[in-house]
């Protein structure tokens, strides 16, 4: 019996596993979508790095008040959870005090959740569960504290469904 469960665990870790919530299968609806950011870091930044599935690269804004990145999902989805991963290596503290907003319209976005504090570990994960029936096309991550900040993000996963 122990060998059976070890085999099941082996398959689970070496197979594609879908994220399910009840009978609904959630997918990362942000993967490969268009990303914009408030500013570009002076030596260049690739905003789409935030949704390319590679956790070792990153996107980076320039120094400013309330920097943000915004993902256009291309259509409306019901959003369950947003995961934001800080960059690896240096500058982990550049992901801090963020609001995560979701909406159908760029000028009417609703708070999904807030993370207070600063990342302290390389590649740290911030997970925000949205209120029931959060629906939208756009997802925005924005630093809300301080006067001069960089926002640097390695990857954003938006778990949702049609």
What's the CATH architecture name?
A: Sandwich
Task: Note the main sheet.
Answer: 8 strands, antiparallel
Name the shape in a single word: globular
**Beta strands, count:** 10
Kindly state the percentage of residues in helix. Answer: under 10%
How many H/I helices? 1
Instruction: Determine Rg (CA atoms, Å).
Output: 17 Å
Average pLDDT works out at 86
CATH topology assignment: Jelly Rolls
The CATH superfamily is identified as Galactose-binding domain-like
Structural class: mainly beta
Distance between the termini: 40 Å
Summed up, the domain count is 1
Unreliable spans are 3-17
Give a brief outline of the structure:
It is built from one helix and ten strands, in the order αββββββββββ. The protein is mainly beta and 162 residues long. Strands 1, 2, 3, 5, 6, 7, 8 and 10 form an eight-stranded antiparallel sheet that branches.
């Amino acid at each position: 019996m122990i060998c059976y469960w070890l085999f099941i665990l082996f398959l689970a870790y070496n197979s594609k596993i879908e994220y399910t919530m009840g009978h609904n299968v959630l997918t990362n609806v942000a993967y490969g979508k268009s990303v914009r950011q408030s500013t570009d870091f002076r030596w260049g930044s690739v905003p789409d790095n935030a949704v390319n599935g590679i956790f070792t690269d990153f996107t980076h804004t320039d120094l400013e008040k309330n920097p943000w990145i915004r993902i256009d999902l291309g259509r409306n989805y019901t959003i369950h959870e947003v995961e934001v991963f800080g960059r690896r290596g240096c500058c982990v503290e550049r992901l801090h005090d963020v609001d995560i907003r979701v909406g159908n319209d760029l000028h009417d976005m609703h708070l999904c959740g807030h993370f207070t504090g600063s990342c302290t570990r390389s590649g740290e994960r911030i997970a925000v569960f949205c209120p029931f029936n959060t629906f939208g096309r756009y997802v925005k991550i924005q630093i809300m504290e301080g006067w001069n900040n960089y926002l640097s993000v390695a990857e954003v996963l938006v778990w949702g469904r049609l």
